[in-house]
Amino acid sequence: MSGPAYDDRGNKDRTITKAGQVGQLRAADNRDARPVHSRDAFLIGDGMTGGYGRGADILHDCTIAVEKGQIAVIVGPNGAGKSTAMKAVFGMLSIHTGSVRLGGEDITRLAPQARVRKGMGFVPQNANIFTSMTVEENLEMGAFIRTDDYSDTMAQVYDLFPILKEKRRQPAGELSGGQRQQVAVGRALMTEPTVLMLDEPTAGVSPIVMDELFDRIIEVARTGISILMVEQNARQALAIADQGYVLVQGRNAYTGTGEELLADPEVRRSFLGG
Amino acid sequence: MDFLNALVALSNFVIVPAVAYGSQLALGALGVTLIYGILRFSNFAHGDTMAFGTMGVILATWWLQGLGVSLGPLPTALLALPAGIAICAALVLATDRVVYRFYRAQRVKPVILVIVSMGVMFVYNGLTRFVIGPGDQSFGDGSRFVISALDFRAMTGLQEGLAIRTSQAITLVTAIVVVAILFWFLNRTRTGKSMRAYSDNEDLALLSGINPERVVLVTWLIVAALATVAGTLYGLDKSFKPFTYFQLLLPIFASAIVGGLGSPVGAIAGGFIIAFSEVTITYAWKKVLGHLLPESLEPDGLVQLLAVDYKFAVSFVILVVVLLIRPTGLFRGKAV
Amino acid sequence: EDVPIGVILGFTGPIESLTPHMAQSAELAMEEMNESGNFLDGHTLVPVRADSTCIDSAAATAAAERLITDDGIVAIMGADCSGVTGAVLSNVAVPNGVPMVSPSATSPALSTAEDNGLFFRTAPSDARQGGVIADILMDRGIEEVAVTYTNNDYGKGLADSFQASYEEMGGEVTLSAPHEDGKADYSAEVGALASAGGEVLAVFGYSDQGGKGIIRSALDTGAFDRFVMGDGMYGDELLADLGQFMEGSFGAVPWSQGEGTEAFTALTEEAGVNGESSFTRESYDAAALIGMAMMAGGEATPEAVAANLMDVANAPGEEILPGELGRALEILAEGGEVDYVGASNVELIGPGEAAGTYREYDVTDGDYETVQFR
Amino acid sequence: MIEVHDLHKHFGGFHAVDGASLRIAPGSITGLIGPNGAGKSTLFNVIAGVLPPTSGRVTMAGEDITGLPPHALFHKGLLRTFQIAHEFHSMTVLENLMMVPGGQAGESLWTTWVARGRIRREEAEIAARAHEVLEFLTIDHLADEKAANLSGGQKKLLELGRTMMVDAKIVFLDEVGAGVNRTLLNTIADAIQRLNAERGYTFVVIEHDMDFIGRICDPVICMAEGKVLAEGTLDEIKADERVIEAYLGTGLKNKAKTEAEA
Amino acid sequence: MSERIHSGAGGTDRARTVLLFVLVAVLILGTGFVQSWNTALVILNMGLVSAIMSLGVNMQWGFAGLFNVGVMGFVALGGLAAVLVGMPPVPEAWAAGGPRIIGALLLSAGVIALAVTLYKRMTPGRLRAFLVFAVVVVGFFVYRGLLDPAKEAVESVDPAATGYLGGLGLPIVLAWPVGGLLAAGAAWVIGKVALGLRSDYLAIATLGIAEIVIAILKNEDWLSRGVKNVIGLPRPVPYEVDLQQDPAFVERAASLGMDPATASSITVKLGYSAFFTVVLVIILIAAQLALNSPWGRMMRAIRDNETAAEAMGKDVTGRHLQIFILGSALLGLAGAMMTTLDGQLTPASYQPLRFTFLIWVMVIVGGSGNNFGAVLGGFLVWWLWVQVEPIGQGVMSLVTAGMAEDSAVRDHLMDSVAHMRLLTMGVVMLLMLRFAPRGLLPER
Ligand SMILES: Nc1ncnc2c1ncn2[C@@H]1O[C@H](COP(=O)(O)OP(=O)(O)OP(=O)(O)O)[C@@H](O)[C@H]1O
Ligand SMILES: Nc1ncnc2c1ncn2[C@@H]1O[C@H](COP(=O)(O)OP(=O)(O)OP(=O)(O)O)[C@@H](O)[C@H]1O
Ligand SMILES: CC(C)C[C@H](N)C(=O)O
Ligand SMILES: [Mg+2]
Ligand SMILES: [Mg+2]
């Protein structure tokens, strides 16, 4: 019943499983957030300022937005606050200034579960699969809020990631790093969300899978789903992005279309690895 | 040389009691394992939860008996079960509301919850004794035996008797049915899977739209039902006494752990392992061998591997040995 | 003025179901003395309860310490289990010079404990009971028994002394197996005992503890149908539950012949106390003796209790039964002498412990039936 | 440096590593690539003593090290990082690094009672080194932050930083690049080359970023389905049809095209 | 560096520590003023012992994350040491079978050693399995054949008063380190076998082993009289009665305005307090020094993530064994001290609730991972354990105050007043953890 040891459940390979702690996330308490309204978008985290618990602010007047059916990509150095911004948009980080709006509706005060029901899907950067459940059950859990028949979506996910079909009866905790990442993305796709938020979906996946993944993301966006993602494989990501954000120390440093950012030599040198 | 008598003697003193005791332990261990699996802590209050639920059943049984209701050969207590479960559920849900929920929100380490559950144990402990007192209560009625030793002897003409109690039979059947249902529930139903998901990764469960409070609620309801059923069956077979229920905690935990914490099937297997090891290792084979061997070879001594003094020690030795061979129990990770 | 008397019994723990009755019986005696109006002028006996837990010496010691130093108790009625009694005696009672009268600590070892003349008990040492039970068996022509005892100093001491006497008389103990109280299951014990065999099963345990569990399990499996029982097994609830199946069983229990017990039974019935539970008589007597010893000494002090307890308990003097405490106090006030008989036929011998007469009983028609006294 | 002979690692019926044999030349920076699930991490784990092999042998500088526990291998100069960061979450970033050096006097109980002065001196040295490493990784401002509070990439950096705390002979890097900013990754690549050149470290690098591999690795080994599929310089590997089919995919050509255009 | 960590406790943490310790002092002193000094000292003495036990558990759990639920067993071994060291030998019993018993024990040790060597030296296979098995089985029967009659002979020497071999008749204080060693030896064996297990599985294994230790203590009468208990252990301090008969002492007591009985019992208790305090302080300092050093850092690293620590060159198994032995030795030491304080060994009183779980409550309520927390928890929880009885009774009389003298509810409640004790304990524990969910003095 130790901390980490206690929580070690079902994971066989301890070198690729993080001995999990108890959940770290908590639903934000944004009751007193001072709203900001700078512009409109389908999903927008507008002028967000806030941080973890009682610590210093991580985000400073940070704005992230994505339009319907478009792809927005967030890039920036490590620790810039990209994941933090995603969490803020999803209601897992208390912000004291700013607002989050979805389709014009202010959702700043909604709990994460409620946001899921509003059509938002999220793949966090770490701990993003149910390790003790099989691959198939992971996907089913992705479709938890769906009441319709989701076997088609599941077939699509299996098409996209054939390895998952092969391993569908295996506990996800036994998969390799890249395979887990595929499960995580597949899980989010199962939700059939209106907005899909991905935190570094391609970390650790092989080139061939990454290409397919990006292709698929474009396809998904074409069906009218908005995509908001953080990427370190920034050049490929920006290449398909309608909108790009560069965050530095919790602030918007550069904003523009994907092409604009790719073309900006300063951005290339400092953030995209030349 | 009398094979039949030997077999009957062995069944009567080893197999039947161990199977019954094993299923009793298993039912208790199921509750423990479920809480461990889903709410992630070892619940020390489980023994006293069982006592409390059983107390509810006893009070209801007395009331029913007062009304003259009976179930014929079956104990009236079975009729009173729903009432007991309801009372027990109310208690655990109230506890969760007042106590556990706070710590869940705080995301405390599981060991804190373990200690908290000890506090809860003390409180339940007092509550039960306040209401029904510390003494022995009998509430069984109906016919005690499916077949008694005497009847068996009369029927078969054998020298040895075989007794099977109604409560033993009910317990075994219940244990099997409950495990099957639980297994099905956790692995096949949406709610069950959402419970496993929650236990695996709370944060992600939240992100999938699973309502944690509902998971917790369902878990406690199942636990209350399990605890009450287990406690009642145990009480029918032996007798009800709050202190004994507290003492049951140790073998129950042992069962849950040998079987693999978090696994319902493991709980059953663990219950049987503990029960059989307690009963067989210290069994004196004199009687059985006496039937089997020709008269000239009949043993003088007891032919006992170890004195019953070491009964508990032995069951723990077995437990340790099992763990050394399978360090995370027999059924780790198969379910829940 | 209040005279606080400690009542230190295991209100929680393994014998928690016996102790309330014991405490009530003791308190009954104190009340009786108070109500008679004859107790030391203007003094009232006030029972102060504390929990010995029966097993946790440290907790018991702390509780006793608190009673003595905080509540200022003058004497202790208790403790109950031999283990904690020994601890309280040597750690608290002796250092503070407070006398203890235990109603139920029966371990032979306590006879030789260093007590500075402060330790008394109204229950006989188990050294004697073993012999009595062996006699009973021999008289009935039973020469082979299996024995099971509760695994503590009481059970072990009794089983040992029984086995020694019985074997000396030519009997055979096929197996002497301990059982732990409060456990869930006794199949293993019963299995071994059945295998060992014997005409009857001797049970030296507690009637609402493992002892009962063993009997139940032995009956259920048909391993034994007759039992011989020690004092801890005497209790109405046992017969209420299992009596009909135990026909022909028998046993011994410390008991006084005739009047004393009856008087006590009447008394408890009237007061609504369960006087049939084990050690209630001894508890009543222990409390009564403490009060009378004070009276005899003319002061409510520990010294008075320690000095006079033997005198009031034994002859010479007028015989006193339960319910007659008022009269006893009167006699003592007048400078007379009493010989307390009480509920358990008190006769203190040697180092201040009950000599003990035992009632041999049969279980007939689901009830206790006296055979004779020994 | 390291030789792997016909190594097998089975999980139940599944052959994660299925008869892999390879040689890591001393002083090289060897790249290890292959599709997801090829068995790369498993191979690492077997070499590093975390998992016992089903069969096969591993030697290091001619000495058989099969089945040695990880801590023994560490002291032989074999270090590794984890694909999923394994930070010591309740400790500060600085402490995460300071715990690494082996054979610290202060790690023996007795010394902590009798030789406080010696410990203090030793600690000062280690702390200085740790600060250097943190500076290099651009996370020195986080020295006193709890490791649990780092961002995903920062944890990977910390993971790398640990291997820089001691003088190693061979370092296994399991996807240090995943989740690390590309600009920083270039700096890391430089550092790896410097360590390799100046201190003679041998590196084995698992990575899915071909740029990174191309920048520093020679030779490159490609694994698939638990076996070594191809071995050679990056260009040779890139040209290998089987590698393209199993791993690189045709997307690489498109990407190369986009890059040429840009 | 270590200095930095040391002072890194920060002002508020330190203030909190001081404040809480003052609170405990107030509680104990208050007990002295309100109830009596004897009671206060009884609580203090057991508090000191509890603090050592809780430090032991804290080492294992707080430092290294080892879930030892076998506290009771180690404490009992310490108690056994007190008997083996302190009691006078029983010559008749030695004559009756002493050497034979020693021989049997040596034989069993030899058999185990042989079996282990065979297991280690031989190549795995049927032959090895068979040989090891044969050695063990034959050894067991020879051992029993040798031991059983000797045992019987020893146990039949005046069973009511002795019936055992007795001890060495040495000063009882020597039993304390011996208790520690005995526990450490047991911990070594257990650690070798069971430390590979993780968390709860280790827990149940240690719990089981503790039960085995108790079973041995209860049933091996020749060793320590089994359930018949050993009473009247010698003491490191004078007897009250002797003091009371010492005119000089009586005079001094009178000059302080105390009656001799009270004065003597207080003096004796203060004697124990002095001994125990010295031990506790030494241990606490050593533990603090260790914790705030690279050793402590390594331990925390191991606790946080064994896999990574192992990869960083830390011998996790070895360190686990080290700390398991160390913590257990403390438990044994405290056990011997406690038995000395009690003056008797009563195996039946070793109950998991009291000796394992209560100690755990102390560690967690105090704050695991923090030595001062563990000590604080030891004192506070012990104080509670003793005081909940009067508190419970007080609460109950408050509750029933408004009820009619003869109301049935009141009677019922007053009858069950004893059960207020555990109930109160539970409620207070829950309240404390509510306000300090990570313990009163959490780890930084
Ligand atoms: N404990 C386990 N039980 C069963 N299968 C396992 C286990 N660990 C790994 N595997 C399987 O072994 C295969 C190899 O895994 P490994 O982690 O070595 O892949 P990898 O080459 O490192 O992939 P990636 O690039 O995605 O990290 C995978 O298919 C995985 O599913
Ligand atoms: N739980 C936390 N508590 C306190 N601070 C945190 C926490 N998580 C992250 N931080 C801090 O917030 C800052 C931003 O972290 P974030 O995870 O948002 O970075 P990121 O941009 O996603 O970086 P990366 O690319 O490395 O994932 C970092 O400096 C980190 O130290
Ligand atoms: C009340 C009884 C449980 C006490 C028992 N006779 C003993 O000496 O321990
Ligand atoms: Mg991030
Ligand atoms: Mg990998």
Automatic annotation (TrEMBL), chain A:
Pfam families cross-referenced by the UniProt entry: ABC_tran (PF00005)
GO biological process: L-amino acid transport
Source organism, top-level taxon: Bacteria
Keywords associated with the record: Amino-acid transport, ATP-binding, Nucleotide-binding, Transport
Example of a GO MF term: branched-chain amino acid transmembrane transporter activity
Name of this protein: ABC transporter ATP-binding protein
Domain ABC transporter intervals: 36-274
SUPFAM superfamilies from the UniProt entry: P-loop containing nucleoside triphosphate hydrolases
Matching PANTHER family: BRANCHED-CHAIN AMINO ACID TRANSPORT ATP-BINDING PROTEIN LIVF-RELATED (PTHR43820:SF7), HIGH-AFFINITY BRANCHED-CHAIN AMINO ACID TRANSPORT ATP-BINDING PROTEIN LIVF (PTHR43820)
Similarity comment: family membership: Belongs to the ABC transporter superfamily.
Keyword ATP-binding listed: yes
Keyword hit for Membrane: no
Automatic annotation (TrEMBL), chain B:
Recorded topology in the membrane: Multi-pass membrane protein
Record-level Gene Ontology MF annotations: L-isoleucine transmembrane transporter activity; L-leucine transmembrane transporter activity; L-phenylalanine transmembrane transporter activity; L-valine transmembrane transporter activity
PANTHER family: BRANCHED-CHAIN AMINO ACID TRANSPORT SYSTEM PERMEASE PROTEIN LIVH, HIGH-AFFINITY BRANCHED-CHAIN AMINO ACID TRANSPORT SYSTEM PERMEASE PROTEIN LIVH
Keyword Transmembrane on entry: yes
GO cellular component, one term: plasma membrane
InterPro entries from the UniProt entry: ABC_transp_permease, BCAA_transport_permease
Name this protein carries in UniProt: Branched-chain amino acid ABC transporter permease
CDD domains recorded: TM_PBP1_LivH_like
Gene Ontology process terms (BP): D-alanine transmembrane transport; L-alanine transport; L-isoleucine import across plasma membrane
Source superkingdom: Bacteria
Provenance organism: Rhodosalinus sediminis
Pfam families assigned: BPD_transp_2
Main localization (coarse): membrane
Transmembrane annotation, as ranges: 6-39, 51-71, 77-99, 111-132, 162-186, 215-236, 305-325
Keywords: Amino-acid transport, Cell inner membrane, Cell membrane, Membrane, Transmembrane, Transmembrane helix, Transport
Family: Belongs to the binding-protein-dependent transport system permease family. LivHM subfamily.
Subcellular location: Cell membrane
TrEMBL record, chain D:
Ranges where the ABC transporter domain occurs: 2-250
PROSITE patterns xrefs: ABC_TRANSPORTER_1 (PS00211), ABC_TRANSPORTER_2 (PS50893)
GO MF annotation: an example: ATP hydrolysis activity
Assigned GO CC terms: plasma membrane
Source taxon at top rank: Bacteria
UniProt cross-references to SMART domains, sorted A to Z: AAA (SM00382)
Keywords attached to this entry: ATP-binding, Nucleotide-binding, Transport
InterPro entries associated with the record: AAA+_ATPase, ABC_AA/LPS_Transport, ABC_transporter-like_ATP-bd, ABC_transporter-like_CS, BCA_ABC_TP_C, P-loop_NTPase
Alphabetized SUPFAM superfamilies for the sequence: P-loop containing nucleoside triphosphate hydrolases
PANTHER family linked to this entry: CONSERVED COMPONENT OF ABC TRANSPORTER FOR NATURAL AMINO ACIDS, CONSERVED COMPONENT OF ABC TRANSPORTER FOR NATURAL AMINO ACIDS-RELATED
Official protein name in the record: ABC transporter ATP-binding protein
Organism: Rhodosalinus sediminis
Automatic annotation (TrEMBL), chain E:
UniProt KW Transmembrane helix keyword: yes
Membrane topology: Multi-pass membrane protein
Transmembrane feature ranges: 15-34, 40-59, 66-87, 99-118, 130-147, 167-189, 201-217, 270-291, 321-338, 358-386, 420-437
Keywords tagged on the record: Cell membrane, Membrane, Transmembrane, Transmembrane helix
Leader peptide range in chain numbering: none
Subcellular location: Cell membrane
GO cellular component terms, semicolon-separated: plasma membrane
The organism's place on the tree of life at top rank: Bacteria
Molecular-function GO terms, alphabetical: branched-chain amino acid transmembrane transporter activity
InterPro entries per record: ABC_transp_permease, LivM-like
Cross-referenced PANTHER family: HIGH-AFFINITY BRANCHED-CHAIN AMINO ACID TRANSPORT PROTEIN BRAE, HIGH-AFFINITY BRANCHED-CHAIN AMINO ACID TRANSPORT SYSTEM PERMEASE
Protein name, entry field: Branched-chain amino acid ABC transporter permease
Organism of provenance: Rhodosalinus sediminis
